[in-house]
Amino acid sequence: MSKASSPSAAARPLVIGGVAPPNAVLLAPMSGVTDLAFRRLAARLGAGLVVSEMVASRELATADDEARLRAEGVGLETHIVQLAGRDPAWMAEAARVAVGAGAAVVDINMGCPAKKVVGGHGGSALLKELDLAVRLIEATVEAVEAPVTVKMRLGWDERSIVAPELAARAEGVGARMVTVHGRTRAQFYEGRADWDAIAAVKARVSIPVIANGDLVSPGAATAMLAASGADGVMVGRGAQGKAWFPGAVARFLATGVAPAEPSIEAQRALAHEHYDGLLGLYGRDVGVRHARKHLGWYLDAAAATAGRPVLADAKGAAMTAPTAETALAAFDRALSELEWRAAA
Fold first, then answer.
1. According to the annotation, is 181 in a ligand binding site?
2. Where is the DUS-like FMN-binding domain (predicted)?
3. 121 and 19: one domain?
4. pLDDT (tens digit, 9 = 90+) per residue, 170-190?
C-alpha cells in the first residue's frame, strides 16, 4: 500500500439533482468499452456511478436494437444513459425512452472527438455551435424529470476554449452537473489533460463539476481535484482491463490510502466474470469479438501487477481465438505463464 495522506475533499457527498451516489468517482462512458457487463462489474467494485456507452439519440428513439442494448441498465442501482445527437426533438424523445426504461440520469455527449461522430456534427463538434448545444440541453431537460448532465471538452482547439461559457449556459437551462475532459477536440488523446483549465469551469457554475482525463493512479486523484477544484473525478482509459480501479480511487479519496492491486488470480476471476457477462449480453459468437480487446487489457493489467511483459504470442492467441472456449483457454495460459515468469 502507498503512504497514507489526508482524505480528499471529494469524500464530501456528490448530489446530482435528487441522485446521491456513494462516492464522487465515476466511470466514463467509452464507446465499445463500458458495456453493461463492464459497468456492473465496476459498480460492484466501488465506482460511485457508471455511465453507458454513447447512444445515438435517433436510434434509441426509433427502437434500434443496438442502441437499446447500449442503453441497457438491468442490475445497476443507478443507471445513467449518455445520449449523442444534434436534433433537439430526437434528443428529447430518446431521453424519454431512456428514463422510461429505468435511467436515473441522462447525460449529453458534447465531447466525443471521433471523426465519425464529429463528421455528423455531434459530440465535440457542438463546441463550435453553442446555441445549438444549449437548445439540445434545454430540450432534454424539458422532456424528463430525471437530472440531465453534460460531458464536454475544453473546446474545439486551444483558440476556442468554450467550456466555461457552455457550462454556465447549461446550468442556466437546467443541467444538474457538467463533466469536463481537460483536452480540446484537436488534441484527441495526445499530450496531457489540463486539469488547471477545468478550474475556470468550476468558477462559472454552482452545479457539480467532474474532472476527467489522465487519471491513471489513485494518488493522482488528489492532484486532479486540487488543480481543477472539481467536485469529483471521472475515470476513463485508466479503467480498461481494471474494473476495480474506480473503486480503488474512491477508497483512496475516502481514506488517504491506496489499496493494493488485486492479485493476478483475483484479476483472472474478474476477467472471467466480465467475459461471461459479455457472452450473456451479446451471445457467444458476437460476444467473443467484443471480448477480445478486454482480454488484451486484462493481460496488460496483470503484466503491470507482475512486473513482467506478456509474451506477444500468448496475448495474440487470446485476442484472436475464434471461439469462446479457445479464447478463454488461451487467456488462462497467458496468465499462468505470466505468473510463472514473475515467480521465477
1. yes
2. 26-320
3. yes
4. 999 999 999 999 999 999 999
